[in-house]
User: Fold these one by one.
Assistant:
Number 1:
Amino acid sequence: MKITDILQNSKQAFASFELVPPLKGNDSEKLYSHLQPLMDFSPPFINITCHRDEIKYAQNQDGSIRKTLIKKRPGTLAIIAAILRKYEIEIVPHVICGGASRQKIEDELLDFNFLGIENIMALRGDAQKEQKSFIPEIDGYHNAFQLVKHVKRLNNGIFLDSEELSMVKTNFCIGVGCYPEKHREATDIQSDIVRLKEKVDSGANYIVTQMFFDNSYYYSFVEKCRQAGINVPIIPGLKPVSTLKQMNILPKLFSINMPQLLLEEITRCKSDIDIYNLGIEWCINQSKDLLKHDIPVIHYYTMGKADNIKQIITSVF
């Protein structure tokens, strides 16, 4: 079932989750051990992240430099197959521009379609660690809205090699991401919303936000989007902070403003355990406030951990 249909037909608010695939070398039991505590809540859908290959440079004996691609996690198809083998649930795989040509992206989408996947998240992805800004692959896409257009063309039966093969139309419901406090590369929130509208106008059916810790940013962002003519569902995404290190890293990585009250509470914590429990309590309060504003679904970023998310869902839903 498409995410938009799930949202339209749901009679009560629910939680969805985003999973990070386990590191390569683990088997499917590692995946299930993380997933099972969340499946106890019967989520209508889960998202599966993907990560571009990392680049490692090494010097050959003749002094030349060779580039090696390092894949740290199983492929998305393997993760989907493992989940479908054990559970009946709608899966939303992430598709990224980073590290992929147009043909590679199309091949992946056709594999998803062959498996009966009806939903995807179309994302640009991050730049490589050694890059100052995002650089697409040769014959790749610079922006997510170009990827959205590609998926939309597949839904209309238009393929890269359509002159050679007789194709069946795909039927993907397309999700895209957004930043309630603006993307770190954006000049301001208004220019970021203009870029978001490009994705919606290109065919995106719904939006999922990046994490935020102050709900007022989400409410303000939704209002600005509606004023800009963006009328598709905007699903809030939350993540409970769990360590002091995250408090230092997350604002820089995702251009997030930490509420002063949260910072003050953090300073009173004497250990990461205290911060972990504070993160759960803060996320519970955020979730309850969102539900009071008639938000139909809250999307939780699990980051490979389930215990804190389970405590939050138990208290909220």
Number 2:
Amino acid sequence: MKSLRVLQDLALVPEGKSCALIIRHADRNGQVDRIVPKDESLTETGRRRATELGKALRRFDLLRLLSSPIGRCVETCERISDGYGEKVEVETTEFLGMRCPTMLKPEEAYKLMCSMGLHSFTEAYVAGRLDPRIVRSCEDGAKMLFSYAMDQIRGRDNQVAVIVTHDMLLTPALVKYFGFDVRKAGLVAFLDGMVLYSSDYGYRVAYGQKVLKVTKDGEPRL
């Protein structure tokens, strides 16, 4: 079974502090790095790996599960709950879905993704070459995502909030702030993403052992 890379960053969370795992759903059917139907489901490997992730979160006293409304994201959360060993209600929100607020005109953005391909769309988005009437800037999108994550753990101790979303909400931030090479690595892998956590010195966000400070309004500082 493929290892869970995100656990390397989870290990950076100080003992007793809270964190948010901002991750892509578990392994699904359909081609990797391609747009697939909304009802594309998880594979058996994806279900097992999501359960393993849940087991790794037992160090935290409380688990919250926040998800895109799409079925494969909700099922990822359910499997994480199984591994954690406690039935946790999944909170769904379109903020994490395919019609997320960073896409000002979702239908037009979708058409661009289809015509350009996901890799080229991501690169153009990060570089600010897409029509701002269709999508918010990459910087604004990242700030919205990180602010949302901070809100889920603010003022809490030893809690983990697992935020399950889609590749196109995560990959641009990884490219912009962590030097992720979308041409070499493809889009963010299944069950991978960033770990945002509280510390004695404010909030931090990590990917691949690289750690950035996050301001109170959600802006990552390079």
Number 3:
Amino acid sequence: MRARTRPGRLAAFDRWLSRSEQPLLAQPGVVVDVGFGVSAVTTAELAAALPAHHVVGLEADVARLEAARREFPSLDLRQGLDALREVRNVRVVRIANVGRALTKDDVGALVREALALVVPGGVVLEGTTDVEGHVSAFHAWRHGEATPRLVLHTDGARGFSPWLFRDVLPRALRRDVRPGTPVHGLLSAWAEVWELNRTAAPAESYVRSAEALARQRDDLDVRHLAEGFVAWRSA
């Protein structure tokens, strides 16, 4: 599952939930973190970000699970994906940095299983980050909707170009960044407006170029751009 884990790496996932899913999270429920890896620190951070909810962390590796239970005895940590089927009233499932070790089909199957278990209107987040968590990209799948949103986030610490997102795209999109595909079209169009709006400050260039791109197309959501988020719904 999630091999390398460090504090703050998945903070963008947590902030997106706090900012964009307030109606869903208005009622207490369960939030599941799939594959926390060598440490459950990011699971603990998820629990801290959503204190009204019961957070369950899943990990397949027994040694990692036992070590995490010693490190975070107050967390509800369980072994394997079978435990996902035992949980009820699941409002959110987070699948972060797990797809790198799985095939595209396996990730798709995992997302479908998670969507079948969440409450109506529940959300499944699946995607990846860079090692430090400065750049993130994840699909936000909602129960009952046919297509996900692609949520992109950066804090500008690694500089900025729209192509920076290519290496952290969710598993389903990672090999689709080629001419003629929707995601390539999005990044290409963004790169064009970025060239016209870039400044010496990467974070400012990100915001200005995203705002300019949103004025050109109606499939881009920049309501949470102040927090570093852009959401795109492909056709």
